[in-house]
Amino acid sequence: MLQTLSLRRGLAAGLACLFLLVAAVPAGATAPAPVPSPDELASGAYDVWFEGGSRGSRVVPDPLGPFNYVREFDQMVGFFAEWQVTEPGANYGGMIEAEDGPLGGVIQTDNTLEAIWCWSRYREFSGRDTYDANVAAAWVYCLNYPAWEEEGAPGDDYYRVHNSAWGLTAVLQYEAATGDSSFAWYADQCAAYISTHSLNLTVGTSYQKRLNAFCKGWAAGNLYLYGLARSDPTLLTAADRQGDDVLAWLNTYPIIYLTYEYWAMSSGTALWGVCNSSFLADPAAGLAWLATNAGYMDVWQDWFDAPGYDWDSAWNVAYLNAHFAVWDATGDAAYWQNGKYVTDNLLSLDTDDDGGIVADSTDPVTEDMSWVSCYLVKFGVDRLMGDPPDHDAGVLRFAGLEDGQTFDPGEPVPIRVLATNFGLSDETAVEVLLSSDAGDTVWTIDMPFATLDTLTYRATWIPPAEGFYSFTARTELPDDEEAANDEVAITIQVGEPSGIPSGGAMVALGRPTSNPFVDETTFRFSLAHPGRARFAVYDVAGRRVATLADDHLPLGEHALTWDGRDDAGRSLPSGVYLYRLDAGGRSLGGKLVRLR
Q1: What HEC string does 60-75 produce?
Q2: Distance (Å, whole) CA 356 – CA 564
Q3: Contact at 8 Å (CB) between 112 and 160?
Q4: Is the residue at 8 inside a domain?
Q5: Number of domains in the chain
Q6: Does residue 5 surpass a pLDDT of 80?
C-alpha cells in the first residue's frame, strides 16, 4: 500500500492507535451510568492516584479549564479538517497524522476512520452539516485502502485488526448521524476480519503479546457493540471469546498488567475492551472482577523515555477511556472523576488553542497529532459534553484570576470575564453582568454556537488597600436551560489583612441538625474569607427547588434554616433532597430526607 511518507511498517513502525467510548449505545447494550450527582462529586469520596516508581518525568500541564466541552469539540473537528488531504490523487480524503515532525506526512486508514467518527458525531449532536464533504472524502480514502488490508507482515494482524475495529465504530456513528446505511458492508467486512483473525496472546515477545492484548481488547469491545447493534449472536459469541482471552491475560497479574503502556496504547484499552465484551455478556461477573481489580489501573502515566514511542498522551487517553467504562459498569463516582481529571489535563496541553494536542507531552505544540486528538474527542470530550441543551449561555471563569488568589499590595489585578455559549443555538443580545469591589458593568453581546468571548472590564486594576475583594460575573438569557453555569463568584486576597482564621478549610459544611426532618432543619457552614455564597436545595432530578442563600457573605460561621418549602412558598412532599453549598470555588453537599 503506497502512502505519502508512510513511516510505519510492521511492528517497528506501524500503528496510530486505538480505543473507544461509544456515544450512542446500541440496542441491547448497557446504557452509560448517569453523571454523578452534586453530592457524589462534592463528597470527596473518590481518589485520584498515580503510578509510583521513578521512571516517570511528570508532565502534568498547568490547568486551562474549566472547559466548555461543546466549544472544545467544535474546535477539534475544525482542526481535523485542516489536516485532511483535499488535493486529487491517491491520498485524497486521508487524514494526515501530525502538524509537523516525523509523522507530518503519514496518512493512514485508522486516522481517517477516527475523523469520520468525530465529524459524524458532530453532525448528530449539533445538527450542522459543516463537515459532510470531509466525511464523503474520507470514505473515498477508506474505500481505496480498506481497514482489513492495511500494512503488516504476513500473520502479523494487530494493525489490520485495530483498523477494522475503527471501521465498526465509524460506520455505526455515521449511520446514527445520517441514516445512511450504504457503508454497512464495510463494517460487516471489518467484523468478519476481526472474527477470523483472533490475535495470539501466548506467542512472541512480551511486548508483542502486550500489543496484541491491547488491540484484541479494542477489537473485542467494538465487535461486541457492533453485534448488539446488528442483533448478530455469532458476532457476540466471537467478541465474548476474544474478550475472555484479554481478561485471562489481565488475570496473569492485574496489579502489573493494568499499568502497562506500549507504543500508542496502554492497559486502559484492554480493560475498556473487556468491559464492553465479556462484562456486557456477564455483568455480575464483571462487577465482581472490577470490585477487586479496577483500582489497580493507572489514572495518569507520567512521561518516560521510550525511544520511538513515548506517546504518553495516547497512553493517558486510553486510561481515561477505561475509567469511564468502569464508571458505566459500577456507577462509582471515583472513576467518573478520574476520567474527567485526565480529559481536562490533556485538553490543557492545547496551549496554542488550535484544537490539537501532542501525542508526546514533551513535544512542541507545533507537532499536534490528529489521531490522539480524535481519541480525546471520542473518549473524553464527547462523554463530558453529554447532550447539550438548545439554549445555554454562561460564564466559564475569570481570565487570569482565580478564587483565593493572593496579590501583593500595589500589584495590578486583571479583570476579564470569559463568557461562552454552552448550548446548540446561536444567541443574540446576551447580557453579561459583572458585580465587583472594583466596580460594576454590563455587556450585551451576541454569542454564536460554541463561542468563547473575553470581556475586559479593566486590563489592570490596583486595589486601594489590603483586604479581600470579591467579583461575581453572570449571564442573563431569557430561555436559558441550565442555571448551574450562569454565574462564577471569586474572592481574592491583597496583602495580609487581619481576621483570617488560621488553618482549616476555606469552606466547611456541617451536617443538618435534623436528618430526616419533619418541620425544619438547620444547615451550618463557615467561610474562611468573605465572598459570594449560594446554598440551595435540589430534588433528586437535580432541579433547584429552594434557594436559602445567594449573596455576598462575611467570613465566619453561618446558619440557614429550611422549613421544607420551595421558593414559591409551597410545602414540598416527603422524599430525598440534595443540598449544596457553592462558595470559595468549592461545592459541598449531601442528602436530606423530609418526612411529613
Answers
A1: CCCCCCCCCHHHHHHH
A2: 49
A3: no
A4: no
A5: 3
A6: no
